[in-house]
Structure to design on (465 residues):
């Protein structure tokens, strides 16, 4: 229920002024203001100061309680809240100092009972402060897990979008060539996919759900290829790369791709006009997948080269910006370099071993070209990583050199300052009645002379350059 009028107008200003952060600070200030007079002896001025601090803070607590009670939607619920009851206790204990006709006030300000009540007020304020500092977390809503798996099928009749789960087994058993693509696969779908595809659940879970690295696994009845479907999302200073787990498996007449997130591969490749009836249908799809992944990695590596060039041109004075950008950039390079290293090994296995169904020498040579490109990209990413590490070391060394120069100058200033300090300490501040037969101008000349010689020695060593 929303209340209008004056209460509705005052509600927002009251909560903006009397915030929990303000009341926490006031409570922390109140605790030493009450305890210190019990532990130490202070002057009348300091006792009056502590009294003003206590009265002001307690007045703020009183004002906060009654104002929030006034603007509350339900005053009954506000007043009966356990923590607001503690607020009321603080108000009552505070009133014992402000209103002399309250029975607690007539006991006397030096009464042991009133001192005990003041200590009790500390614990009340402290307990309320803990509640303000650690607010209760709202109960998280538990939503039932629902499968988000999307199934796309490429058959002789065309593309079937958002196919049903039952269609997977039917098209696998069909005689024609089929490409079944499953996206946004989660743990809820693993049991169904394991029963339908005859792939152990532990294999699907290790590839799709858990973190793994690109590789080829050979099983008795099937072979799987796992790769990272990495794609550049944003370019420039802030490189963001979308990563997707992609598992590929095939048999004589069908090929299956399973990804943990959304993927554009099916839409892009199916739109290229592949002839489903061709005998090399499966190997053509595999070649298209790896070719597009090579293009995605090329785009990522190109963006990284541009990014490291931008870091090199960053002014030395912007060291904080350089370290922040290079930190996140280095993490991305490490991930991409690892993916490319394993992707290169996958392409090497495909090139050297005839694991592709119905593939002739033509496709082996094409996959050999893809392998060479993956080797080049892996070496380029390694070079970028080494260049970044060298650039970070160079910037840190540059800052260290500048810091060393500052430290040398400070050492020179300190050394020069020691000379008049030592001489003044030996002769004293007043030369009258001194046992040394020396005058003030002579002392001044001696200090200037020694300081000049010292400065010249530092100059010859290069510390003043």
């Amino acid at each position: 229920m929303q209340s209008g009028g004056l209460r509705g107008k005052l509600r927002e200003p009251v909560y903006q002024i009397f915030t929990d952060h303000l009341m926490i600070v006031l409570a922390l200030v109140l605790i030493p203001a009450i305890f210190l007079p019990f532990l130490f002896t202070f002057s009348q001025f300091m006792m009056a100061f502590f009294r003003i601090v206590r009265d002001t803070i307690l007045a703020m607590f009183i004002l906060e309680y009654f104002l929030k009670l006034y603007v509350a939607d339900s005053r009954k619920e506000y007043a009966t809240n356990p923590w607001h009851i503690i607020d009321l206790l603080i108000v009552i204990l505070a009133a014992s100092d402000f209103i002399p006709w309250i029975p607690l006030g007539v006991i006397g300000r030096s009464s042991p009972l009133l001192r005990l009540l003041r200590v009790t007020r500390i614990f009340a304020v402290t307990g309320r402060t803990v509640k303000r500092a650690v607010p209760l977390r709202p109960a998280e809503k538990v939503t039932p897990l629902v499968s988000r798996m999307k199934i796309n099928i490429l058959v002789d009749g065309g593309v079937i979008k958002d196919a049903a789960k039952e269609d997977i087994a039917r098209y696998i058993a069909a005689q024609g060539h089929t490409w079944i693509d499953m996206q946004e696969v989660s743990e809820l779908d693993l049991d169904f996919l394991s029963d339908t595809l005859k792939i152990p659940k532990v294999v699907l879970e290790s590839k799709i759900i858990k973190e793994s690295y690109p590789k080829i696994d050979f099983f008795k009845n099937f072979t799987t290829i796992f790769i990272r479907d990495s794609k550049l999302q944003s370019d420039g200073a802030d490189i963001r790369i979308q990563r997707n787990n992609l598992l590929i498996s095939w048999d004589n007449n069908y090929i299956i791709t399973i990804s943990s997130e959304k993927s554009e591969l099916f839409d892009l490749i199916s739109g290229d006009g592949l002839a489903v009836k061709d005998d090399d249908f499966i190997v053509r799809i595999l070649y298209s997948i790896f070719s597009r992944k090579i293009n995605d990695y090329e785009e990522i590596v190109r963006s990284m080269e541009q990014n490291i060039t931008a870091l090199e041109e960053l002014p030395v004075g912007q060291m904080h910006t350089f370290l922040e950008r290079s930190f996140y950039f280095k993490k991305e390079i490490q991930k991409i370099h690892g993916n490319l290293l394993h992707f290169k090994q996958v392409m090497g296995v495909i090139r050297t071993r005839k694991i592709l169904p119905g593939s002739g020498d033509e496709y082996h040579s094409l996959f050999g070209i893809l392998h060479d490109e993956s080797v080049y990209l892996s070496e380029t990413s390694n070079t970028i990583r080494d260049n970044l590490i060298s650039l970070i070391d160079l910037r840190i060394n540059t800052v260290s050199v500048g810091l060393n120069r500052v430290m040398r100058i400070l050492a020179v200033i300190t050394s020069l300052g020691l000379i008049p300090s030592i001489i003044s300490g030996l002769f004293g501040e007043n030369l009258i009645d001194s046992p040394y037969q020396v005058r003030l101008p002579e002392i001044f000349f001696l200090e200037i002379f020694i300081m000049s010689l010292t400065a010249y020695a530092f100059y010859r060593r290069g510390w003043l350059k």
